[in-house]
Amino acid sequence: MVTLIHTLADHGDDVNCCAFSSSLLATCSLDKTIRLYSLNDFNELPYSPLKVHTYAVHCCCFSPSGHILASCSTDGTTVLWNTQTGHILAVLNQPNGSPVRVCKFSPDSMYLVSGAADGSVVSWNMQTYKLFRCGSVKDGSLVACAFCPNGSHFVTGSSCGDLTVWDDKMRCLHSEKAHDLGITCCDFSSQPISDDDYGPQFFRMASCGQDCQIKLWVTTLSDLSGFELKYKCTLSGHSAPVLSCAFSYDGQILVSGSVDKSVIVYEPNTGSILHTLTQHTRYVTTCAFAPNILLLATGSMDKTVNIWQFELKAHCQVSQADKPEHEPKQFIETWSEEEVSSWLCAQGLEDLVSIFKMNNIDGKELLNLTKESLTDDLKIESLGLRSKVLRKIEELKVKVKSLSSGIPDEFLCPITRELMKEPVIASDGYSYEKEAIENWITKKKRTSPMTNLVLPSLVLTPNRTLKMAINRWLETHQK
User: Fold this and answer.
1) What CA–CA distance (Å, rounded) separates 304 from 466?
2) 433 with 443: CB under 8 angstroms?
3) In the predicted model, what is the mean pLDDT of residues 177-200?
4) Which residues, other chains included, contact 219 with Cβ-Cβ below 8 Å and sequence gap of 6+?
5) DSSP E strands: which ranges in 211-321?
6) DSSP letter assigned to residue 136
């Protein structure tokens, strides 16, 4: 179930974009302003609205840490703001002064990309606030941009309907016509869909356009195969041009907003429509999900921003046809050899069934498997396959623990797998128990526990919104 929990009506003209950090919501408008709200109570901050642009503000976005907000405008500038004070950090002038339609931070916060009406795309160095590299598309205005979560490439979309893929050195890797009448938005799911830790990572991407369609793609970049962009399917539902699309933080929900005034909520794995939201009275121009929690903002030409809360049960609900063949029981130790075989098949490990049966692996033995026993006793030679088996076993333990405790997974620290008491958000965008991530960093681990990428900053920001959600859950379930 999706519930409308708040409506913001402070802008004096069309709302063009919404963006979340872990503690703030930013909105920008045709009225030339950017407004900032606290996620604790949705009250506007004392230094809001932000006013410096001389024409419409088309896009706004937060840096991964949430400390910087970028806004871009028809006036040909991209402005960087300190989100703690509202002060201007820098004004970045687009080459040739062309109207800037979109801006996005790289996942490591090192660069900001801005795309303009003349087809120019600029990468700005966020340490010096200087122009780093430039590029351009052949035709049309650049109106959409999204970074791949691992930072290996980013995608731009043009008003002529082309998707163009760039690497971090601003080299064009790929370009193709995606939407006949022009692209309006694109977004990556933050979660990879590949299973092999030692192979390339595959990421799902969505694009939408004036052709009333939403298309799903899969992208990959590897040393061996180079870059690939594969079309997967088209989602139906809207009766007019689709202006915005966005994935939830866990990649399990995709939403879209349209000229038909509706917001559609999809299950991207199956393409099925979960909800249709019709509270806006004019075109829905923007959709954005909060990091780490299921909070959605939608903005419209009706000058309002609606805030929606997803109930966990609705988010996790799976149709009978989509349920995996083997749902884990609470006590894995009681599994028979046949149940272990069924579980292997459900994980795509059918080739190991005969080996496990030959060695009489039941539930108890499954839990005791180690890297050494897989190598020496079961004679599984492939390093990648051994790693996959161990990872699937660990996921099974976590799932069963979650089922037995009833605690929503997003409330568990990724490091300790325990309910968080003092959640903080790190510069990788994920939330952790404060003590656990501090211990992780103290051990000289500068990499993210979730992505294995280098943390661009060691600053930890309290995730008050998540803490409030956890406290509400505790009040409901532990009376």
Assistant:
1) 25
2) no
3) 79
4) 148, 153, 155, 165, 188, 202, 203, 205, 227, 228, 229, 230
5) 214-222, 226-235, 242-247, 254-258, 263-267, 272-277, 284-289, 295-300, 305-310
6) E
* Tokens (6 digits) for 446: 């500068």
Q: Rounded to the nearest 10 degrees, how much is the dihedral formed by the CA atoms of 180, 282, 275, 396? A: 70
pLDDT one-digit tens code per residue, 69-87: 999 999 999 999 999 999 9
Structure tokens at 310: 């997803």
Q: What is the DSSP track for 10-62?
A: --SS-EEEEEE-SSEEEEEETTSEEEEEETTT-PBPTTPSEE--SS-EEEEEE
pLDDT, residue 200, reads 61
Collapsed DSSP state (helix, strand, coil) of residue 332: helix
Calpha distance 74→69 (Å, rounded)? 17
Q: Measured between alpha carbons, how far is 337 from 328 in angstroms, rounded to an integer?
A: 14
pLDDT in tens, 401-456: 554 456 776 788 888 877 889 999 888 878 899 999 998 888 767 788 877 677 88
- Beta-strand pair 284-289/295-300: antiparallel
Neighbours of 65 (CB within 10 A): 22
Query: Which residues have C-beta within 8 Å of that of residue 388, sequence separation ≥ 6?
Result: 195, 196, 197, 349
Give the list of residues 6+ apart from residue 45 with CB closer than 8 angstroms, or none. Answer: 24, 36, 37, 38, 86
Identify the CA nearest to 108 among candidates 446, 461, 411, 431: 446
Tell me the three state secondary structure of residue 470.
helix
β-pairing, 142-147 vs 153-158, is: antiparallel
405 vs 397: CA distance, rounded Å:
12
Q: Peptide bond before 49: cis, by omega within 30 degrees of 0? A: yes
Residue 395 three-state SS: helix
Cβ-based burial of 269 (10 A; exposed 0-12, middle 13-18, buried ≥19): middle
Q: Which residue has the tokens 């009225």?
A: 31
Q: Supply 106's token pair.
A: 């790289």
